[in-house]
Design a protein that fits this description.
Elements: E1 2-4, E2 7-9, E3 30-36, H1 55-62, E4 65-67, E5 70-71, H2 77-86, E6 105-106, H3 114-119, E7 124-129, E8 148-151, H4 175-179, E9 183-187, E10 190-195, H5 198-202, H6 204-218, E11 224-229, H7 251-272, E12 279-285, H8 312-315, E13 319-322, E14 331-333, E15 337-338, H9 342-350, H10 365-368, E16 385-389, E17 393-398, E18 402-405, E19 408-413, E20 425-430, E21 433-436, H11 452-469, E22 470-471, E23 476-477, E24 485-486
Parallel strand pairs: 3-11, 3-12, 4-14, 5-15, 7-8, 7-11
Antiparallel strand pairs: 1-2, 4-13, 6-24, 8-9, 9-10, 12-13, 16-17, 17-18, 18-21, 19-20, 22-23
């Protein structure tokens, strides 16, 4: 048994699994994917967080592999989640930005999600938490490969409530808030509750955790994919009474401590069910921190800028993968990888077919297994990564060491806000720049004059990408972009 808040829950332990946990084990691995909202690179105690601890997430890294060069598909919510679910750069499938409530746009029915890929191999697929790939019926999880869903269909700030937790009014000068409906909690395809207050939101992390554990209990005899997409620490922040006021960092630290608790509870449930040793656990974030919310925002860990920019603070996120007997324990992987690589990697692990339509992810299973190539170097399945933003703006490209930033306008975070209120932002122009990320992960020193051959090499990659997908920044159209779904 284990404790959930003040309740003791008894679990029925399933039969013992195989003693061998290699890739050819008779029992296919379960997959648990934690996807945290707006958690920055520096928000774990293992990456430098202060004022609170994340010991259970840190333990995942100790027992698994930490990816130091891991990237969200784009630095903002819907686009990031579209990339994760489909293995594509979001602009390839018509996604941009963060979808609003009642949006006519969502995931196209012909795109195959991770859940649809795994269902072909007999997996049960469940999601708890934030979806954000469209809130109309055709776009919701049960119509896109999942068997079970409990959560919010979009971000937890998309509601008619102001920054102080009061219902928005015309006098509050928040026109977007006034247009939003109350937050709907969806179970399956049906709205079962409306959330109107921060107290309502304070129960979300525990609610998602309970549903995740129930899914594990109910599917312990079947291979499963469980997607845990916590709404926190996206603003507005809310922690349960058990954690509120517990950290030295304030409410943000409280929320991160509760997420760490959630990870522990899920891992305990896997252990109680005898599933821990045949489960691949992945923990990562959808993008960097929303820095203009000040003490209600996370940390980029010294990386440049934050969410909604293609600088490192917006798109490089912590990632941990644990799979006993397959992933070497306590290893740091310094090779390039991304959320778009998760789908093809899971397909390789389970023997599932890849989607029929072209995807951009690559199989990083050799990295998970710690395989080496000549001279002891790690294998490098991904040779470069493209940084897109807005509708189809190619803003940068990197290889395993250098990042070429292309001319574009970008957000700049100025004076941060406080206690849930946003601070000042602005826009600036940046020119062609080259950064040596091995020596300068903060992107402070332009070295294009020192490495003209690197600039030329990366511009070749840029040209190949533009020939494939186009680039709105230079008015190029690409032949291989696909539309998002439309609700008529």
């Amino acid at each position: 048994m284990y404790r959930m808040g003040n309740r003791i829950i008894h679990l029925i332990t399933g039969g013992a699994l195989l003693g061998s946990f290699g890739l050819r084990a008779e029992t296919p691995p379960n997959i648990v994917l934690f996807f945290i909202d707006d958690m920055g690179y520096g928000d774990l105690s293992l990456t430098g967080a202060s004022g609170y601890g994340t010991p259970h997430i840190d333990r995942l890294a100790k027992e698994g592999m930490f990816f130091s060069q891991f990237y969200a598909a784009q630095p903002i919510s819907s686009a990031s989640r579209a990339g994760l679910m489909t293995g594509c750069y979001p602009n390839r499938i018509g996604f941009r930005g963060a979808l609003s409530p009642r949006s006519a746009t969502g995931i196209h029915p012909e795109e195959e999600t991770i859940a649809e890929v795994l269902k072909k191999k007999g997996y049960r697929c469940g999601i708890v938490g934030k979806w954000h790939l469209g809130d109309r019926h055709p776009f919701l999880p049960l119509q896109n490969g999942f068997d079970d869903y409990l959560g919010l269909p979009y971000s937890n700030d998309m509601w008619p409530v102001d920054y102080a937790g009061n219902r928005a009014t015309p006098e509050s000068n928040l026109p977007n808030k006034l247009r939003h409906p109350p937050l709907p909690l969806i179970d399956g395809n049906e709205k079962v509750r409306e959330l109107w207050t921060l107290d309502d939101q304070a129960g979300l992390t525990a609610l998602y955790t309970e549903r995740a554990i129930r899914f594990i209990e109910q599917n312990r005899q079947t291979p499963f994919f469980l997607y845990i997409a916590h709404s926190m620490p996206h603003v507005p922040l809310a922690a349960s009474g058990r954690f509120k006021g517990k950290s030295e960092q304030g409410l943000y630290g409280d929320v991160m401590m509760e997420i760490d608790w959630s990870v522990q509870e899920v891992m305990n449930a896997l252990k109680e069910q005898g599933l821990e040793e045949n489960t691949l656990v992945i923990f990562t974030s959808d993008n960097g921190p929303w820095a203009n919310f000040g003490n209600h925002a996370g940390s980029s860990g010294g990386l440049r800028e934050a969410k909604a920019t293609t600088f490192e603070g917006g798109q490089r996120v912590p990632c941990i993968m644990k799979w006993k007997g397959v992933v070497p324990e306590g290893r740091v992987c310094n090779q390039l990888a991304s959320t778009i690589d998760i789908l093809p990697t899971l397909a390789a692990i389970t023997g599932a077919d890849l989607p029929e339509k072209k995807i951009d992810g690559v199989n990083i299973l050799p990295l998970l297994k710690g395989e080496k190539e000549g001279e002891g170097k790690e294998k490098a399945p991904r040779t470069h990564f493209l940084y897109y933003y807005e509708e189809n703006d190619l803003e940068a490209v990197r290889d395993n060491r250098f990042k070429l930033v292309l001319p574009h306008r970008h957000r700049v975070y100025r004076t941060p806000g406080n206690d849930g209120y946003p601070g000042e932002t602005a826009e600036e122009e940046t020119g062609l720049s080259l950064y040596d990320l091995r020596r300068d992960p903060g992107e402070r020193y332009d070295v294009k004059e020192l490495y003209p051959e690197v600039v030329e090499r990366l511009l070749t990659v840029v040209e190949e990408a533009r020939a494939d997908l186009g680039d709105k920044l230079v008015n190029r159209s690409g032949p291989n972009r696909r539309p998002a779904g439309r609700y008529e």
